[in-house]
Amino acid sequence: xxxxxxxxxxxxxxxxxxxxxxxxxxxxxxxxxxxxxxxxxxxxxxxxxxxxxxxxxxxxxxxxxxxxxxxxxxxxxxxxxxxxxxxxxxxxxxxxxxxxxxxxxxxxxxxxxxxxxxxxxxxxxxxxxxxxxxxxxxxxxxxxxxxxxxxxxxxxxxxxxxxxxxxxxxxxxxxxxxxxxxxxxxxxxxxxxxxxxxxxxxxxxxxxxxxxxxxxxxxxxxxxxxxxxxxxxxxxxxxxxxxxxxxxxxxxxxxxxxxxxxxxxxxxxxxxxxxxxxxxxxxxxxxxxxxxxxxxxxxxxxxxxxxxxxxxxxxxxxxxxxxxxxxxxxxxxxxxxxxxxxxxxxxxxxxxxxxxxxxxxxxxxxxxxxxxxxxxxxxxxxxxxxxxxxxxxxxxxxxxxxxxxxxxxxxxxxxxxxxxxxxxxxxxxxxxxxxxxxxxxxxxxxx
Length: 447
Description:
Layout: H1 2-26, E1 33-37, E2 42-48, E3 55-63, E4 66-72, E5 80-85, E6 90-96, E7 105-111, E8 117-125, E9 127-129, E10 135-138, E11 144-152, E12 158-165, E13 171-178, E14 188-190, E15 193-197, E16 203-208, E17 218-227, E18 230-241, E19 245-246, E20 251-254, E21 260-268, E22 272-280, E23 286-293, E24 296-299, H2 304-307, E25 308-317, E26 320-329, E27 339-347, E28 352-361, H3 375-419, H4 422-428, H5 430-435, H6 439-446
Parallel strand pairs: 1-8, 10-18, 20-28
Antiparallel strand pairs: 2-6, 3-4, 3-7, 5-6, 7-8, 9-11, 11-16, 12-13, 12-17, 14-15, 15-16, 17-18, 19-21, 21-26, 22-23, 22-27, 23-24, 25-26, 27-28
Subcellular location: Cell membrane
Region (Disordered): 422-447
Membrane topology: Single-pass type I membrane protein
């Protein structure tokens, strides 16, 4: 009896040992641990030492260290699984695109649904960019800092900072932080630019000293390199000069039926690709007027083809493009007033700026009343009537004055011999006094 038990035990040990050896020989030793950062794509590999066998890949469910039936991934459209025949057997690969933290776990490749299998462990570390500015306004000659922040526990092989010219797509590297100098605040300088980790260790800072016009002609990027197949990129970040669009007449006052010229000026290092015209009511309602693109102006308002005229002039002065935009509104109507007319310019580097011009209505010169006469006509008639009345009153006064004088003289002539002495009569009528002689003088003559 003891001999039989011993023989059975030896057979059992040899079978189990042989199964273990065979099990290990079914798979070639390789990578059993994979790590990645969320957002990247990873590829898991199993190398089989046998041919003409099918395989199944599952993700195990481990709860309290107890293995439960896993989810079969061969029929899942998210995963890309393929096999390649080799001289020794076949290679099984599975690609997981854009991994997340939930993709962490144990993945098993089993052969022919047998106990023969190999497990690999996948760990995914979360990574998230913090919100940052996509554009920064700069002044020529100043020092600036471009900062990119992120949240992660992953360790990166290197951090690259570079810029790309939007004129010729030329790439220029500005700094490279490697694993050796990443934690000691090491500075990597290229000419007047330097790249460092920020004080909190959760971001990278690019410092550019004494900004020039050349610096503004680039888009700036950062690339966090985790592995040869995994990196996180951020950008572009633009450098912009300050206000690019303005008007010398922020308020225009005009009258109905007049032609109105809206004039805007712009200055920038990049040429204009699109101009949008809108107008806004006090209630913040936006109406489209028209747009310019590709050398052609397209009106969008009613009767715009006959009422709107567009003109643009542009010149390049010392690496700065200066231009003028004129939009003419013909025969302004009542509905055109009390609007903010907005010119929005989009430049070649995708930056944009806008400026408003308020159109107000002046008091009209001529307003029709109920009689059909304008206020100007009524005023002219009123002045004419007043002048005529004044002239008539003056004439009447003159006539009355002369008649009064004549009447007085007649009265005096009729009553002068009876009631007035000769001396007074001579004074009143000197002509008569020169031809009348006294009775004494007549007597002397007769003598």
